[in-house]
Design goal:
The protein is α+β, with helices and mostly antiparallel strands. 18% of the residues lie in helices and 30% in strands. Strand 4 (63-68) and strand 5 (71-72) form a beta hairpin.
Length: 408
C-alpha cells in the first residue's frame, strides 16, 4: 500500500500575516489608532507617511518596521508630528514619518514601541499605498470633493442628491464620503452612486474605538475627538487623492463651492491658477442661506419632492451678508501635492501659497440653520445663482431619485 508523500514543511512567511483591512486600526501596546500609510518622499529623509489618531498625553517613541517583499527590514526611528489643531480634545490627528531601509522594496508597514530584529507577534500591518504607481492605473480626475464624517443616521436625502448633482454639473469627477452611519434612504442613495463610480464610500467606524464628539470644541462639547474624527478624514482624503486628482475641495455636504463668473470649476480654476501660479490653497468664503426663509412664489416647491426626506435648496434664495468684523470661516480648494497637513478651514502645512478668492468670483452656497436668527428677511440679500442650473438640476435629481425608488 502506497503511503501519501508528506508535504514539505514551509518556513513561516516572514512578512505580515495580519494585514489590516479596516480603515481604523488600533496600534498594539498604545492608546493610538492608525488610519492609512502612503508613500510620501516630500520631507527629506523620509519615505512613508502614516496618518493616525493619537492620544496626546501618551505620545512615546515609535519604530517603523517594513515588509520588504519577502523579508522583514530592520526597524528605523519614526518621527511623530501631532497636528496643531486639536481644539482641546484628548485625541488628535497625527502623522508618523518613516524611512525605508536601503534595498527594501516595502509593501507593508507597522509601528513598534521597541526596536526589534525579530518578527513581532500578532501585530497589525498597514499596506503602503503608492499613489504614484496607482496614478498610471487609475483614471485621473480634475476635481475631487472630500466629505468628512457622515454620522447620526443622517437622512437628508433631497439636499444630498441636489448637492451631488450640482457638483457634477460644476465638473466634479469624484466625491469621497467617510461614513460612520446614515439613514436608510441616504445609505441606499449613496450605494447607488458608489456602484456608478461617482461616489467613493470609506467606512469610518470611529465610534467603535473612541467616544467621538458631536461638536468642535472639547470644553463645550466633550468627547475624545473632534467631530467624529473629521480632521483625520480630511487629511486621509488629501493623501488618497494626492496623485489622482488635480484639485481637492474640502467642504461639507450642505456647502456648494459656486463660481459666480464662470460656468464651472474648470474654467474658474484655470483662470485662478493662471493669475496665481504659486498658490496651492484657495480659500472660499462661506455664505449662509437660512433654511427658515423660503422663496415666496413657491416656484420650486415641487409636488414630486414632497415625500422625499430633506431640504430643497432651490427654495432658499435669501442669504446673510458675512459679518467680517468677527472670524468668518472659509472652505478650501487645494492642489493636494502642495499640502502636508490640513485643518477644516485652512491648511496647517502648505508647500505653496495661500489666496483668498473674492466672493464675487466664487463663494459657498450653504443652505443650513442660521447662526444669526435675529436677522429679518429685509436684512438678507437675494441670490438666485442656483436657479441658473435649475433645469438640468431638477431633471438629474429626478432621474436619481427614481432610480433608487424614492419617486414613482
Amino acid at each position: 500500500m502506497n503511503k501519501p508523500i508528506p508535504k514539505p514543511l514551509r518556513a513561516p512567511a516572514p512578512c505580515p500575516l495580519l494585514i489590516s483591512e479596516e480603515t481604523i486600526t488600533p496600534l498594539k501596546n498604545t492608546a493610538h489608532l492608525l488610519v492609512s500609510a502612503f508613500m510620501d518622499q516630500r520631507v527629506k529623509g523620509f519615505d512613508v507617511r502614516i496618518i493616525g489618531i493619537f492620544k496626546r498625553d501618551s505620545i512615546q517613541p515609535l519604530h517603523c518596521l517594513f515588509c520588504c517583499s519577502d523579508q522583514l527590514s530592520k526597524t528605523t526611528p519614526a518621527r511623530i508630528l501631532t497636528h496643531s489643531d486639536h481644539f482641546g480634545f484628548p485625541y488628535c490627528t497625527t502623522d508618523v514619518l518613516c524611512q525605508i531601509p536601503q534595498s527594501c522594496n516595502a509593501t507593508h508597514v507597522t509601528l513598534l514601541t521597541q526596536p526589534t530584529t525579530e518578527r513581532p507577534f500578532n501585530q497589525s500591518w498597514l499596506p503602503i499605498r503608492d499613489e504614484k504607481t496607482n496614478e498610471k492605473k487609475e483614471r485621473r480626475f480634475d476635481f475631487t470633493v472630500c466629505i468628512s464624517s457622515l454620522y447620526g443616521n443622517y437622512n437628508n436625502v433631497l439636499q444630498y442628491t441636489q448637492a451631488l448633482e450640482m457638483y457634477r454639473l460644476l465638473g466634479v469627477d469624484r466625491v469621497v464620503i467617510y461614513n460612520t452611519s446614515c439613514g436608510p434612504d441616504l445609505c441606499n442613495l449613496l450605494q447607488s452612486y458608489s456602484q456608478e463610480g461617482f461616489v467613493e464610500i470609506v467606512p469610518w467606524p470611529i465610534s467603535e474605538h473612541l467616544n467621538p464628539s458631536h461638536g468642535w470644541l472639547h470644553s463645550k462639547h466633550g468627547g475624545d475627538v473632534h467631530y467624529f474624527g473629521q480632521l483625520a478624514t480630511l487629511n486621509e482624503c488629501i493623501y488618497r487623492s494626492m496623485h489622482r486628482s488635480r484639485y481637492v475641495l474640502l467642504n461639507d455636504i450642505d456647502e456648494i463651492i459656486m463660481p459666480y463668473q464662470h460656468e464651472n470649476l474648470t474654467s474658474l480654476m484655470n483662470m485662478l491658477q493662471q493669475q496665481h501660479p504659486n498658490v496651492g490653497e484657495f480659500l472660499i468664503e462661506n455664505h449662509i442661506f437660512p433654511r427658515n426663509h423660503f422663496e415666496p412664489s413657491g416656484r420650486f416647491h415641487l409636488s414630486e419632492w414632497s415625500r422625499v426626506p430633506g431640504v430643497n435648496i432651490l427654495e432658499h434664495i435669501y442669504k446673510e451678508d458675512p459679518d467680517r468684523t468677527i472670524y468668518h470661516p472659509h472652505k478650501i480648494i487645494v492642489q493636494p501635492r502642495l499640502v502636508e497637513q490640513t485643518s477644516v478651514h485652512e491648511i496647517i502645512k502648505n508647500l505653496g501659497q495661500r489666496y483668498k478668492v473674492p466672493p464675487e468670483v466664487c463663494r459657498i452656497i450653504n443652505v443650513c440653520v442660521s447662526m444669526r436668527r435675529s436677522l429679518t428677511i429685509d436684512q438678507l440679500r437675494v441670490d438666485k445663482r442656483l436657479w441658473d442650473f435649475q433645469e438640468k438640476l431638477i431633471h438629474n435629481v429626478n432621474k436619481v431619485l427614481t432610480k433608487v425608488g424614492l419617486l414613482p
